[in-house]
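Holo prediction — pyridoxal-5'-phosphate.
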Amino acid sequence: MPPKSKKAYSLETELVFSKSNDQYNASVPPLYQSATFKQASLDNMGEYDYTRSGNPTRTYLQNNMARIMKAEHAFAVTSGMGCLDVITRLLSPGDEVIAGDDLYGGTHRLLTYLNNKGDLKVHHHDTTNTELIISKISSATKMIFLESPTNPLIKVVDVRSISKAAHEINPDIIIVFDNTMMSPVLMTPLDLGVDIQYESATKYLNGHHDIMAGIIATRSAQLAERVYFVINSTGCGLSPFDSWLLCRGLKTLAIRVERQQENCQKIAQFLSNTGFKVRYPGLKDHPQHELHKSMCRGFGGVLSFETGNIKMSEKIVENTDIFGIAVSFGCVNSLISMPCKMSHASIDAKTREERDFPEDLIRLCIGIENSDDLIDDLTKALLKSGAVKVNDRDELFNAVNVQFKL
Ligand SMILES: *Cc1c(COP(=O)(O)O)cnc(C)c1O
């Protein structure tokens, strides 16, 4: 196991700093593509025996992640949903949990499955309403699932207040926070009172859309032991090769996120100036702009906006060139999607309507490209779709003060 460095550096440095006890002093983590490890003798098992239980490349990644997430313990598993599967296995039959009503589609699907089977009793509430959530916490509540900002509705949750109030009611309630949207660069949920933080590493952490992975982190030795037990029992630990790729992706996390949110802020401003209803916590008119600022170091690289017309939204999505039509986010390249038809199609139309989920909503996941090129690409799509009239063009261009290449 690589030695933990004594001094904690700032996050940007920790992401690229590597200290290992590799026998050849390899400057990057070596890949141990081996399922088994020989024992020195019958009685001496050594540190590793079987990769399901532990692998040096995965350990290297986990130690690095623990430092970055300011956790004591971090575990790498095969996907973000794999994290949630492990975490829900800590519960007992019939346990009650509180979950947001605007969670990631896959999270909603797994919790609904467990609820319908009778494994758990899941209560969905609007987690942006702190008082409502606190009023719903009872002695039967065992876990609370939070996500902030939610996507694509970009609703911000007061993580500090909910965690504090829940722990006052019952110190054993486990607050679980999905930090996929902000990444450790912009948010440290464990500092806000959360017990378990998890993230889909498929998104920002890896940043290149070439692996699926998830990270679970905690400061509690007792929770860590239980989480490890489930991972070892079910065999969902991240493979050595994917761990190695994730180590590589992580090195550029800080500069990627910095550039993505710089681009995103410009695009949010551009769309807002053009007259669309834009959801982005970095805009001063976002209803929870200040709350978000009080918890995070930035606003991230995902925004959504409404056009008021489903057909028009479809045309915009189909007429971009640089923005690829794809689910997911956090990659170096920009993506565009219509959540109702794609990532959130697993939530039925009736539930979407109950939750005021606009069917015309377009989500943009911003990459590290040149921001003028991105705005140029969007402008062409807006004009082609008729969302913006050609007469508005001069005004539109002046609004952003960028050189268009139409
Ligand atoms: C993608 C995503 C997940 C699921 O992660 P996978 O790696 O795709 O399994 C969970 N939560 C959020 C917020 C996500 O965006």
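READOUT: The pocket of pyridoxal-5'-phosphate is lined by residues 79-81, 104, 106-107, 147, 178, 180-181, 200, 202-203, 212, 214 (CB under 6 Å).
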